[in-house]
Structure prediction request, 989 residues.
Amino acid sequence: MTDTTASPKPRRWAIWLPLGVFLGFVCLVLFGLFRPADREVASAMVGKPLPAFDLPAATADKPGLAQTDFTAGGKPRLLNVFASWCIPCAVEAPQLDQLAKMGIEINGIAIRDHREDVTAFLARNGNPFTRIGADDVSKVQMAMGSSGVPETFVIDGKGVIRYQHIGEIRADQMPLILEKLKEAEQ
Amino acid sequence: MTTQTAGIKAKHQRLVLVVIALVALIGAALLAIWGLRSQASYFYVPSDIVAARPDPDRGVRLGGMVEKGSLKTEPDGVTIAFVVHDGKARVPVRFKGIVPSLFVEGSGVVAEGKLAANGTFIADNLLAKHDEKYVPREMKEMTEAQAKQVVAETQ
Amino acid sequence: MIAEFGLAALWLAAALAGLQLLAGALGLTRGGAALGAIVRPVAIVQGLLALIAFVALIVLFCQTDLSVKLVAMNSHSAKPLIYKFAGTWGNHEGSMLLWVTVMGLAGSFVALVERRLPEPTMLATLAGQAFVSLGFYAFLLLSSNPFERMPQVPTEGQGLNPLLQDMGLAFHPPTLYVGYVGLSIAFSFAIGALITREVGPAFARAMRPWVLGAWIFLTLGITAGSYWAYYELGWGGWWFWDPVENASLMPWLAATALLHSVSVLAARNALRAWTIMLGVVAFSMSMVGTFLVRSGILTSVHAFAVDPERGSFILVLLAIYIGGALTLFAVRAGSVSEGERFAPVSREGALVFNNVMLSAVLGIVLFGTLYPLVAEAMGAKVSVGPPYFNPMSALFVVPMLLVMAVGPLLRWRRDGFARVRAILVIPALLVVLAAIGVAAWGGIGVLPFIGLTLAGGLAVASLLPLRGRSLRRTPLATWGMVVAHLGVAVALFGMASESAFSVEKLVAARVGDTTAVGPWQITLKRVRPVAGPNWTALEADLDASYDGGKATAVHPQARFFWSPPQPTSESALLTRWNGQLYAVLGEEADDGRWQLRLWWKPFVTMIWFGGLMIGLGGLLALLGRVASDLKRYVARGKIAYRRERQGR
Prediction:
């Protein structure tokens, strides 16, 4: 067999081709990864009034929740979107309790839930809510631009959404929430 | 194998192989691009469809909200008709089959199918999985238009 | 306690991977030969530690230890034990732990049994394996710790996606993972060979069993996954070209190409650089596929959680490993000489053709999978489905199948078609007859037509390499090839038959109504509620009778899982030798009628049967290779022993 180094060598550049293709892939994916950086979907509704809604009560002992409850004026309050089947919701319960004890009014919306489950959940984790609406098909949740549970909205006295907190409120995030509530007061 | 002639011939044959391989791979790339241009199904919301109709033989996906009170089951018991809207425009949809369980009036839906010449969207498949873990990517950006409409409906 | 124990084992394994990399690298230098000696034992212990961590997680899941976040988020005390067990890898963290475990064990296995590679290449290979493992350990420990505790112990877990509560889940993802990660060995071998520049038949023979092993698992995993999607999703389809499916198909295509090119390298010392390249590409495809699935960059029916942070982390790993390997390839491959020559019409020529076609299909699938991303970059939203994938891949698969019929009959190095023409008369005749028959049947699409036409001829052609041989003396590896190629023909027949002859019926039936689907008569007897451990369901009692024969009961269900609340439909299957009846129960209409969706799918089972045969072929080949290697090893030992005695 003859020496193989004699084979044509114009394909030198071809050796770099796979690397080039791969770099193209990385660029593409980087683009894809960072363009929808709003994957923690920030609501387009921040700064806008709450959508109109009127939800029935989610438990026997607390009234339901309507958009008109928020427009009566008064101090800013929190609107917490939760569900009994959601683990992080249980994690943030102590923080919500603490906020409620500070005299902040917290309203809840239970997503895709059963009455008895909500009742059991609140019995277990404490009930910081003054009103709880039942949103059985996530209709109001989606209207508010919330894409998951738990999420907490700061609503000012005129019923305008001022801030959206995605995920559970951890203990170290309490000052942030309080600050946002103060901002909403102005 | 004997010396020189074999060497030249071998070189020649190697070249043929390389050329065939390159032609096949470049052909594959060109075909892929052509195929994707003609076969990828684009995502439309109802106002897009009203503004610029897709070809009747082109597969597209239509995303929007199922209008309240529009859902009808036809006498055969398996064909349903409903209207998908995005707050600006409405498109009637027909679907034959078992609907996903999360599919209800007022919910979001992505329908895969074709727009018939008479303006009805004939769906072969409905995706309605918008629970907290799975939101069709296209639906996410609809929230604003959706919001207005949901507002109107819940009153 | 178990959680902390598992975490400690994981950290230790990561540390050992670091040591393995360092010792392997230093072992290659002149002064560090002594360090090289510890690489093998370290690799073995590292794999065992990863296994311990994985077992710890399994125990936590089986005990439903809700203080561990992962368990609380993904399990539920009411879940049957087998699904608690399978739930271990039914989530992101658990599956990544499975990934590093398999990777560690693969490294251990290589360190334990591989004795054919020259020692420097071996060191480079194990160092490479450790380098890749290290990145995944870092990913696991820094961004997806499976053993993280909950700040507050919940009273109940959040459950597992009900779609995943199925026996399919217990076997299909781990099988695939063994395949994906098994390819890391081929990757490390390729890197080792690039570093030491020792590419040749001996290297190929050492690499081949590992590639075969990973490929068998991939084949079985894809087959099982396809069947799982078929009966669990209730859509009646068996392949959806979903990104998750494509992610498993792409490494398989690359590994199949590698398997064939490594044969050329082993037998003829040709295609050296190309084989190395494929070794890199195969595992790269595993990683790319995992990345695409795990980062949530492409939406998919398999709905994994979306997490850009983790996505970025894996992307960095990809950039380091794939980018690094391809750079190394570009720098070094020029000095890996091209190897022996061959004529276009020869066994090598056919295998090269196979490789080019497989690469083309790989490119088509990869491009189609990524295209939604490209389109998004240009501001359009698209989804790419069967109308693109089917014809485009068929364009390359069909010529490849034709060559598959001829290739094994050709001689190495140089041959002429004239020699094999006479043998191929029978399959060619079969193809012509089938074409006439199918055309006479009429009303069949282009692709099913091609499939039905080719299947019979291919089946016969795949048996031809056995002609004139003593069946008992035929090497096991040849049997493997024959069985695998026959499996391709069988699967092709199943696919074509399913799409050509399936009958679908969608009806709204009252209790007592009878519906005809193909040769079947289906009577709806009643619909009643039933309950399972964590679901309630409506179940239909259907009586199905084939061609007027005795009725068999089938029970499709519409299930509702209550934690988390999610409905699923459980299709009912009735299998006969010549096909399957597939029934799905829909909703109740207002007038008391029930929606039923029924399919008669002739010979659909051949698809998975063919897949199993392909896997079995791989297994036979693997056994054959290992047996002959062992024989050679023993013989060499005997010779050495004899020499030693004579020397005395």
Notes: The first helix of chain A runs from residue 17 to 34. Residues 1-10, 36-41 of chain A have pLDDT under 50 and may be disordered. Chain A touches chain C through 33 residues (CB under 8 Å).
